Amino acid sequence: MAVSGLLGGLALYGIGLGLRPSPFPALPDAWLLLPLAVMSGLELVRRTLPQTALAVGTLAVVADQFTAGSLVTIILFADLAYAAVLYGSPAAARRIPWTTGLVTVASTIAFVAWFQEPEAVLLGVMVGLVGFAPATTGAIVRNHRDAAETARLRAEQTALLAEMDRTQAVTAERARMARELHDMVANHLSAIAIHSTAALSLDDPATTREALGVIRENSVDGLAEMRRLIGLLRDGSDDHEPAASPTLDGLAALAEQARVNGLDVTLDDLRTDHARLPAPVELAAYRIVQESLTNALKHAAPGPVRVVLRLVDRALTVAVTSPFGDPSGPRAPGSGAGLVGMRERATLLGGAFEAGPRESAEGKIWYVRAALPAGETGEAPHEGGSE
User: Fold this and answer.
1) What is the largest CA-CA distance in the chain?
2) Helix 251-260, helix 279-299: angle, nearest 10
3) Best-predicted range by mean pLDDT among 8-12, 75-79, 362-366?
4) C or N: which end of the chain has fewer Cβ atoms within 10 Å?
């Protein structure tokens, strides 16, 4: 742009085309080349120093008025006004259109007052075309660019939030699947490990036969649970908990299965209201009891295991106690994921969970307690009534 402007101005000067005769005979026509050269040089910094270029360009275009004048100088100045608004600071982008507008109005009034002719208005229009029109155009273009950039950033932010939501949803679903797999399979596999170890370590046909029966029963039940989970995963349903999820009605069968596996289990349902609770609450309670019985099978000392259910102030309390001490006989190893899963289930429902050893009238026991909100409004769980 700088080279084109300079060559164009030289071409007009070469053919003797100027805007006006010089009002000062002492200034030859060649003087118009000085503002032209300055304006052409300013085109090189129209992006990097737009406001400085406009300020110097204003001085150059004023100096051009005392020469024969060049049309190219005026055009280059208009471009500098446009660039100063488009590439300058936000404050300059707001200030320059107003300034050029005021200069246009003031120039028009001054020309009319000086020449006392209606045609003097055209001089003011020319000032507006050189300064105000380019500045206004630059402001419009800048506003469109800013709006487009804002829309792009908003779209990127929306896409980022959507990706974060998707990642969180996938993580939550994977955690839920991990809890389901652990709670369904660990109980059966622990019983299989314990009884298979007993069958291998004891040379007793009756014990071996009994152990094989328990192993077969747990294998069949474990396979059934796995098939159910695989069927749910293949189903495209969006339901978080399927209708076939375990409920509190299945605790009796769960306790009976634990007795078959070798635990002395007592189930005490002390609820006065046996109405159906929300499905997520019943599923969480069932899984907590299931995991507690699995842990008792793997780690508890010989003795009674007690499961107690209470419903107080629309909060379902599940408590499981088992003897705490050195276990006798073969035991399956644990990873600690069961306690984490139980705590996660209670926390996701807004409930409370605690587990650990404590002293009781029967001696030292391992105590598990979960308080799950069972009300429709999801009120906080009742913390009273602990075992």
Assistant:
1) 132
2) 10
3) 75-79
4) N
Query: Is there a contact between 335 and 298 (Cβ–Cβ < 8 Å)?
Result: no
Is residue 121 within 8 A of residue 111, CB to CB? The reply is yes
Amino acid at position 71, single letter: L
Q: Is the same domain home to 147 and 7?
A: yes
Condensed to tens digits (0 to 9), the pLDDT of residues 226-250 reads 777 776 666 655 544 444 578 888 8
pLDDT score for 235:
63
Residues ≥6 apart with Cβ < 8 Å to 383: 352, 371
For the stretch 157-207, pLDDT in tens is 988 888 888 888 888 878 777 777 776 666 677 777 777 776 777 777 777
Residue pair 10/17 in contact by the 8 Å Cβ criterion: no
- Return the SS3 of 357: strand
Q: Is 357 inside any structural domain?
A: yes
Distance, in Å, from the CA atom of 97 to the CA atom of 100, rounded to the nearest integer, reads 5
Distances (CA, A) of 63 to 19, 53, 66, 154, 260: 14, 15, 6, 47, 107
Long-range contacts of 56-60 (CB under 8 A, 24+ apart): 57/81, 60/35
Residue type, position 46, single letter: R
What letter would DSSP give residue 187?
A: H
Given the DSSP bridges, would you call strands 304-312 and 264-269 parallel, antiparallel or unpaired?
A: parallel
Residue ending a domain, choose from 154, 186, 210: 154
Domain boundary, last residue among 154, 185, 220: 154
CA 303 to chain centre: 50
Residue 379 pLDDT class (50, 70, 90 cuts): very low
Residue 199 lies in a domain: no
- Pair 261, 119 in one domain: no
Cα–Cα distance for residue pair 63/330, rounded to 1 Å? 104
Angle CA 120–126–129, to nearest 5: 150
Range of the structural domain that residue 46 is part of: 2-154
pLDDT at 187: 67
The pTM of the whole model exceeds 0.85? no
49 assigned to some structural domain: yes
Pairwise CA distance, residues 164 & 106, whole Å: 57
Six-digit token string for 150: 């804002």
* pLDDT at site 377: 36
| Whole-number Å distance between alpha carbons of 110 and 256 | 105
